[in-house]
Amino acid sequence: MRKINPHSLPEVNFSENGKVRYLHLGTPWVQGSMLIAKPYDIELEYVQRMMVGLLFLDPAAVTGGHAMQLGLGASTLTKFCYKKLNMTCTAIEINPGVLHACRGWFKLPPDDERLRVVLADAGQEIQKQEWLGTVDLLHVDLYDQEAALPVLDSVEFYDQCRNLLTEVGCMTVNLFGRASSYERSLEKIAQVFREDAVWDFKPTREGNTIVLAQRTPHRPEREAMQSQADSIEQQFGWPAGKWLKMFKPLAKF
Fold first, then answer.
1. Are 97 and 12 in contact (CB under 8 A)?
2. DSSP secondary structure, 95-155, as one string
3. Is the pLDDT of residue 73 over 60?
């Protein structure tokens, strides 16, 4: 396994603008955010969309399920799944400074029987036997301090991600960056998961495009998805009803 050299990792800092605190890796690029008065809510639009897997999971099975984040960021998804959904959560983060910041500035609770942060290279850690076939919601948001392109974005990596998922599990990926190619990344994901298991959003105004891939291709009825979206919107205040107009499968069943 690759050994982490703390001297090669970027510095971690934060800024505040009104009611929101932002995480940075030594640059102006935002790596995550938190509503200061509501630290367990999700503030950024693209991060809300990273939870689109809730459209496909049985609500009764979410509590007690397993959510995994590759890249801790400001710990927004980890905190939300842990506090709001009562899921078991595992986050894999390479930079100890990010974990220190999340615990000190972003209200990430300490590890316990339902929460574990692993300091490791995500590409290496997810190959361990203990994680295979255990994850119901997998969130992939791996960018360096320049946010130029995904740090891990190969067919081999997405194959390893698929191996993490339960039969009903799904992966969401944030595709963003000045030098990245959305089409090439999408092609790799579809190659691993098959086109009939892949869905994508239209990009946000900031350029984040969220892609979802299912371990087992499943196309809910329109009425069922609308009901799930209505429930999400009522519970969390996200515009989940509008998601259905912007979120489409790549291929027909």
1. yes
2. -HHHHHHHHHHS-PPPPBTTEEEEES-HHHHTTSGGGTT-EEEEEE--B-TT--SBS---H
3. yes
* Residue 128: both structure tokens together: 């361990």
Q: What is the DSSP letter of 38?
A: B
Give the model's pLDDT for residue 251.
75
CA dist., res. 197 & res. 251, Å (int): 8
Global model pTM greater than 0.85: yes
* pLDDT confidence of residue 2: 43
Q: Give ∠ CA 121-69-155 in degrees, rounded to 5.
A: 65
* Count of residues making up the chain: 253
Best CA proximity match to 141, nearest among 211, 239, 64: 211
Q: How many CA atoms lie within 13 A of 8 on its CB side?
A: 5
